[in-house]
Amino acid sequence: MQTDPMHRVRRARRLIATAALLALAPLLFAACTDDEPEDTTAEATTATSEATTAASDATATATEAMTETATATEAMTETPAAAGGATVSVATEGDLAPYLVGPEGMTLYLFTNDEAGVSNCTEGCLANWPPLLIEEGEEPTAGDDVPGELGVIEREDGEGRQVTYNGMPLYYWQGDTAPGDTTGHEVGGVWFVVPPTDSTASAPVSGTSNVPGY
Q1: 197 and 127 share one domain
Q2: N or C, where is the chain less crowded by C-beta within 10 Å?
Q3: Which of 50, 77, 104 is the last residue of a domain?
Q4: Is 44 in contact with 29 (CB distance < 8 Å)?
Q5: Whether residues 73 and 94 fall in one domain
Q6: Which tens digit of pLDDT belongs to each residue from 18-70?
């Protein structure tokens, strides 16, 4: 059974603390028995030996737990894209669900002023609507229930390789701060969340806007 990463972190911390206390036990015991009669020497030696063995065992266990912790920490810092392998997935909760989200769960949008395979959001527009980009040599992957076609275009402004859905470039909205936020929907009448359809025919089209940043 897979252990929760945070549980492994807490377990490692407890074991490390225990190892430290046990390592100090012989010193503390010796300090307490310095003024005792000589007949306590054997008992002190035995207790010290037992404490040292226990500390050694605890240290070994703590070392193993630290290794688990490192693995858990790495797993927690992985992006969802690396963990699940999907560039684009479907959000199923919220008033606007279902809609497409990026690898970190942030809402994706389409710009109705764009054309298939062409982004018309440039310069100042990109400051508000960052494109969903993918590294050179990589291809976008679809999560479960993503019926449409993912693609990539080379942006003419040199910003990188932008992911498309059914030919339409995909963007984030700078006003969204957490997964589930959809505050960019209907901005300017030209930005919308992206429904997981198998074509762009059902994507909302509400005219055009020349407002800067749209």
Answers
A1: yes
A2: N
A3: 77
A4: yes
A5: no
A6: 555 555 555 445 555 555 555 555 665 665 566 556 556 655 655 565 555 44
Residue type, 79: T
Looking at the fold, whether 64 and 165 belong to one and the same domain comes out as no
Phi, psi of 208 (to 5 degrees): -125, 165
Instruction: Give Rg (Cα) of the chain.
Output: 29
Domain of 133, in residue numbers: 80-214
Instruction: Please count the structural domains in the chain.
Output: 2
Do residues 186 and 192 touch, judged by C-beta distance below 8 A?
Answer: yes
The model's pLDDT over 73-92, given as tens digits with 9 standing for 90+, comes to 343 333 333 334 589 999 99
Q: What would the DSSP string read from start to end of the chain? A: -PPPHHHHHHHHHHHHHHHHHHHHHHHHHHHHHTTS-GGGHHHHHHHHHHHHHHHHHHHHHHHHHHHHHHHHHHHHHS-HHHHH--SBEEE--STT-SEEE-TTS-B-EEETT-BTTB----THHHHHS-B-EE-TT----B-TT--S-EEEEE-TTSS-EEEEETTEE-B--TT--STT--TTTTGGGTEEE----SSSTTS--------TT-
